[in-house]
Amino acid sequence: MSTAETPTPSWYDVLDVEGSASDEQIRAAWRSGIADLDPSDRRFRLLNQAAEVLLDPRRRADHDAILAEQERDDLAPTAAPVTAPTDTPAETAGETTGEATGEATGEATDESKAAGQSRRTAPAPAIASASTAEAKQGRGAGLPVVPAWAVMVVAFLLVLSLVPAGFVLWHGDPEASAQPALAAAERAVGPVTSYDYRHLDEDAAAAHTYMTSSFAKKYDQLFAVIEENAPDTKTVVGPVEVVDSGIVRTGDDRVDVLLFINRSRTNKQVTTPDVYKDQVTLRMVRQDGEWLVDDLTTSPAS
Amino acid sequence: MRVNPLFRWILLGVLLMLLVASVVVTTAAVASRTSTPGTSSWTRFTSALTGSDPEQSERDEVRDIGSQFMLRMLSYGPSMLDSSGQMPEYRKRVTDIITSKFEVSFNDTVGVAEQLVAQSGQSRSAEVYSTGVSAMDSDSATVLVAGTFTDSYPDPSAASSSKKSGGASASPSASASASPSASPSASPTTDPSASSDDGRVQTAPVQFRVSVSVVLVDGEWKVDDYAPVTSGTDDSTVPLTPGDGSTSGSGSGGSAGSQGGTS
């Protein structure tokens, strides 16, 4: 007879106590149960196990939960009966339980009589001892099984969706750089293209803050000529007015910006400002989150 | 092996959540991508996927049309004149890339250039240095174009020594003042170093900075208008028309621009 077809006894049944028995009652039942048994007797071991479980509040609570579930499964006709994990401990327990109940049964209560029917069958105290594994099995038992192909299809779709996501995130957005770079170019063009003979060092230092280090080297070479001549000619170039601007091209971390600028100029001989109407293309590159001038191109005639 | 239904449900749930998250991230990245207003979602998606930049392609197209327009507008000479005193090839080169609306105003002014060329033998050529797009949407754009144009005239000394002048002996200054829309303050000056090997004298290059408006007509970009770029304080506001020698230059340093720092 398989355990799947028969009700399984509980540790309460083994000690012949009610489900609401107190710890003292359980101890008393255990003492009376083992009183006439030899320690090597398998029934002795079974009674010890029952007492261990029922006297441990946590394990007793787990056992009670399993019993409640068994009761629900019994009421639900499609519910799969909980079976012992192996036959050998159940059979052994069944023999010992059968003998133990035969000897330990005293005055039976209604509950004990109902439970006693199950004692004559192959019990499954091993079910209680394996409560965690069985309980987990039991929790999923009521759910329909998702077909493996459905899981595979969703997994495949996920992989398929990750490919374009990866490409999109990797490529980035070159146009997003356009406006910030243009704004930075409009701020930079004034300091980079103007100077005053009275404070050339400060002007050069200010211009450097808008340039990459590589462009700063080219700028310094040109500025060296200005530093030689401007003090004598008393040349002042500036202020610089940005009249209009536009994007030439964008790229990853690089944007070329065209600016139409008006620059005033005075010197020792020309004291009324002359306005020079220039066109300048600045190559802006992004370094450490900042847009800097990396190159400057203007009319070839210069 | 025993199947744990709960495990499969959990696995399915996690995979579905990841799938939804992946789709949401991709959609958000594509939707937030900077693009010209009016760009279709499919174009956004494919450009995001391939890393292409359709906006830059459009930008290059409108820059090219702006540049072409100024080169064609400012390139003509006596060799283009026909027997009726018109320059049909010049007219066609320009009207090919302008809207029909703009063609009306062009036809009103092209006669001035044709007359000048016929009377003085003026020839004009241009060079574009730079272009940039200051505004763009799905069917219109504004292109900044900077460059210079150079005029040449028959060398008066060569003409006076030869008695076979074809009527093209007008002096450059006289030619400039004959143009009804010329501005005296910006009349081209003769460059004494200009080569006269071909019997012509060149003027100094005159800088121009213009803003060209283009529109998309039947899938093709066409010029709809143009005007010089000036600041609020500029005193030269005469538009650049064929035959007109006045542009935005002022002062001796206005020609050909100057590099930052040296002047």
UniProtKB/TrEMBL annotation, chain A:
Top-rank lineage group of the source organism: Bacteria
A GO CC term attached to the entry: membrane
Transmembrane segments: 146-170
Keywords in alphabetical order: Membrane, Transmembrane, Transmembrane helix
SUPFAM superfamilies cross-referenced by the UniProt entry: Chaperone J-domain
Domain J: 10-67
Region (Disordered): 69-133
Compositionally biased intervals (Low complexity): 76-107, 121-133
Stored Gene3D superfamilies: DnaJ domain
Keyword Electron transport: no
InterPro entries: DnaJ_domain, J_dom_sf
Localization: Membrane
Protein's name in the database: J domain-containing protein
Organism: Nocardioides acrostichi
From TrEMBL, chain B:
Polar residues bias: start-end ranges: 37-54, 230-239
Sequence segments annotated as region (Disordered): 34-60, 152-202, 221-263
Comp. bias intervals (Gly residues): 246-263
Composition bias, Low complexity: 154-196
Protein name: Uncharacterized protein
Lineage summary: Bacteria, Bacillati, Actinomycetota, Actinomycetes, Propionibacteriales
